[in-house]
Amino acid sequence: MKALILAENDNRELRPLNSRKPGALIKINGISLIEHQIRGYVKAGVKEASIAVVAGYHHDKVKRFLKRTYPAIRVVKNDDYRLMSAARSLHLALESVEIDDEALFVSSGECVYDDRVVERLFKCGASAVAGDTSRSDGESILMTNGRVIRVGAAVAKEAATAISADLWRLDAHAISALKGVTAERIVEKRHVSMSAVLDDLVRTARVTLVDLAGTKWAAICSLANLHQADKRFSRFALSDVRCLVLDMDGTVYVGDLPIRGTVEFIERNAQELAFYFVTNNTSKLPEDYRLRLNAMGIPTESDHIITPLGPLVAYLKDYTIRNVCLLGNARLCAYLRQALPELELTADPEACEALIVAYDTELTYDKLRDAAVLLQQNPRLPFLATHGDLVCPAEHGFVPDCGCILSVLEQTTGRKPTVVFGKPSPLLVERVTEQCGEEHMAIVGDRLYTDGKMAQNVGCRFICVLSGETTREQIDDLGEDEFPALIVRDLGELLARVS
Ligand SMILES: [Mg+2]
Predict the structure, then answer these.
(1) Distance 118 CA to ligand 1 centre (A)
(2) How far is the centre of ligand 1, averaged over its atoms, from the C-alpha of 362 (Å)?
(3) pLDDT class of 497 with cuts at 50, 70, 90
(4) What is the C-alpha separation between 297 and 258, in angstroms, rounded?
(5) E strands along 336-473, which residues?
(6) CATH superfamily ID and name for 309-420
(7) How far, in Å, from the CA of 463 to the mean position of ligand 1?
(8) For 31-71, what is each residue's pLDDT tens digit?
(9) Cis peptide upstream of residue 484 (ω within 30 degrees of 0)
(10) What is the Å distance from ligand 1's center to 257 Cα?
(11) How close is the Cα of 468 to the center of ligand 1, in Å?
């Protein structure tokens, strides 16, 4: 058995995701489309050395990926991919790869199939095209008397038997017919799609249909297709979790406005799921966030608001630390005094037991100077930071956050914090993890390097919402282990998914 994957295409509908790589290297579940296909073929029994890939647009990226991951796979280059894609690619591949009497599988590199798809086609002993009788979106296939007779634009949508999944299995006779078809088509020197080639082929060779109804597959021809495929191939099920930890800014709301569908989603799932709301911001108190969420129609209690102040207080209690130097605003200072009545603020190097740096919206030069001196005079002084975010989004742009203050101290003293309680530290949600168990919780957020990283550190699933900072393009740079379990535009979409 042999397999050909056509990965030469430059599809402008996939910009900006395919600006730096071909569509076949776009990822679903952290695995590129082409790798999904290779894994499927290999699992079905095709040897790596029996697979060829036709590359054109960014062919160097395809070549590099294959050399690193599947060195036995042969790459065929189609330099004319802009003018002639599928017909030319098939012609080149059939000319340059040794094709014998064994079955040949042909697929578009911009499709993703689950294992059952490839398996069904493998079980079919004849030449066949994979099509889905349960779908109506895509290139139509018309079949009569057990034989495919037309494919593509010539078939009226209402008359279609199935939708083509751009995956074929060809026997020796069909391979020979395909050689003739592609040789004729390339003379035209124009773009000829896989469906148009197949339409030619079914007139000269008998091709049957393998129905994909009930399987998962997707043709990624646009960003909308990709978004649907992200959800269709996600292994995340809301019924598997008991608790959701929601980042707030960019996930639950932007400014004072809740993001579409958020309130409804929380309302509808309030009986089955425990909701926790998490932020790194220590310029405000948990009670401030509770009031803010309540005003948006999200009822919650203060103990379901998680900020770095919780683990900070627990740490100070655990280590019986009472004399601290604090870089934090007056509200934070009052909060800590209430939580720890014996707390004393001091910049005396003899008395001070820890330096605490928070998002100090009332920062002064004197505070910075005292902190820097303390760090130098006592090299073993515990240096506690509430979080490491460099900037905080504000009404007119980004403003310096706790990380910038830490950076000034590091530049001055060379010291970095001993403990950071905020995201992505698992310490922030330790209480929730202990209560729910990481296998029953999921973190929902809009930042990969805080929310996503924290989920990784905790060992729970991560749902990435595209309603805040992260773009789908940035997600595509992640590896398989870092990839979100689910990608949705916003929480409202998650509501539609479970209803
Ligand atoms: Mg956020």
Answers:
(1) 40
(2) 23
(3) low
(4) 9
(5) 344-345, 354-357, 383-385, 391-394, 397-400, 419-420, 441-445, 461-465
(6) HAD superfamily/HAD-like (3.40.50.1000)
(7) 12
(8) 999 999 999 999 999 999 999 999 999 999 999 999 999 99
(9) no
(10) 14
(11) 6
What's the pLDDT tens digit per position in 251-285?
A: 999 888 899 898 999 999 999 999 999 999 999 99
Q: Running DSSP on this structure, what letter comes out for residue 428?
A: G
402-445 confidence digits (pLDDT tens): 999 999 999 999 999 999 999 999 999 999 999 999 999 999 99
Could you tell me the distance, in angstroms and rounded to a whole number, from the CA of residue 222 to the centre of ligand 1? Answer: 27
CA 252 – ligand 1 centroid, Å:
8
| Ligand 1 center–CA 372 separation, angstroms | 30
Distance 309 CA to ligand 1 centre (A): 18
Distance 387 CA to ligand 1 centre (A): 14
User: What string of DSSP letters covers 203-247?
Assistant: HHS--EEEE-TTS-EEE--SHHHHHHHHHHT----GGG-SEEEEE
CA–centroid distance, 99 to ligand 1, in Å, is: 53
The pLDDT value recorded for residue 498 is 43
Q: For 226-244, what is the mean pLDDT?
A: 95
Per CATH, the homologous superfamily of domain 238-308+424-498 is HAD superfamily/HAD-like (3.40.50.1000)
Query: Which amino acid, 32?
Result: S
Cα(448) to centroid(ligand 1), Å = 9
The answer, as to whether pTM is greater than 0.70, is: yes
The arrangement of secondary structure in 2-232, i.e. its CATH architecture, is Alpha-Beta Complex (3.90)
Residue 6 has pLDDT above 90, yes or no: yes
User: How many angstroms separate the alpha carbon of residue 250 from the centre of ligand 1?
Assistant: 4
For the chain, what's the residue count? 499
